[in-house]
């Protein structure tokens, strides 16, 4: 790949068009990037999601725990999910349906080394989760 605009176009297309959700939130937890995969998985358009709190996809019962961890990561720059470890959690769709997602996170730093925000790459695993749950129940 040649340097310059071709590389930039590759990165932008990869991030915008990926089938997995790619979401970036700033240090305050406001959504600043929302790709087509996020639109497909969560049901919110880019225009609806940008500038909103991550609360639009976090079930209410999990918000306090999420924000405690988010604040800790913003303060320390460290996350236990930043090394490719998958985190599996429930999430919300625009229609109010709860889904199961797996995701990894990538902390972003500003030019001075401070925390600027966090990106997450998410996949809807609801079907697999439901199949596993049914299999476990059947084996009981």
Could you give a quick summary of the protein structure above?
With 140 residues, the protein is α+β, with helices and mostly antiparallel strands. The protein is 37% helix and 27% strand.
Write down the overall geometry.
globular
Largest sheet: 5 strands, antiparallel
* Main CATH class: Alpha Beta
Instruction: Output the strand order for the largest sheet.
Output: 2-1-5-4-3
Uncertain segments are none
Provide the structure class: alpha+beta
Quaternary organisation of the protein chains: single chain
Q: How many extended strands?
A: 5
> SSE order, as H and E?
HEEHHHEEEH
Sheet-strand content, in percent, reads 25-35%
Count of runs of 4 or more consecutive helical residues: 5
Q: What is the correct CATH architecture?
A: 2-Layer Sandwich
CATH topology: Beta-Lactamase
- For the terminal residues, how far apart are their CA atoms? 54 Å
Number of domains: 1
Helix content: 25-40%
Protein described:
With 140 residues, the protein is α+β, with helices and mostly antiparallel strands. The chain has one domain (5-139): PAS domain (Beta-Lactamase), CATH 3.30.450.20. Helices cover 37% and strands 27% of the residues. The protein has helices spanning 5-17, 36-42, 46-49, 63-76, 126-139, and strands at 21-26, 31-34, 87-92, 98-109, 115-124. A five-stranded antiparallel sheet has the order 2-1-5-4-3. Strand 3 (87-92) and strand 4 (98-109) form a beta hairpin. The chain starts with a helix and ends with a helix.
């Amino acid at each position: 790949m040649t340097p310059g605009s071709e590389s930039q176009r590759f990165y932008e297309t990869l991030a915008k068009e990926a089938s997995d959700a790619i979401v970036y939130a700033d240090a305050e937890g406001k959504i600043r990037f929302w790709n087509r995969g996020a639109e497909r998985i969560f049901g919110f358009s880019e225009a609806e999601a940008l500038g909103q709190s991550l609360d639009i996809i976090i079930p209410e019962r999990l918000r306090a725990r999420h924000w405690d961890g988010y604040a800790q990561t913003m303060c320390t720059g460290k996350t236990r999910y930043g090394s490719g470890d998958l985190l599996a959690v429930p999430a919300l769709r625009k229609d109010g349906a709860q889904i199961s997602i797996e995701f990894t996170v990538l902390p972003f730093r500003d030019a001075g080394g401070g925390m600027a925000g966090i990106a997450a790459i998410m996949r809807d695993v609801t079907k697999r989760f439901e199949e596993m749950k049914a299999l476990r129940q059947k084996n009981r």
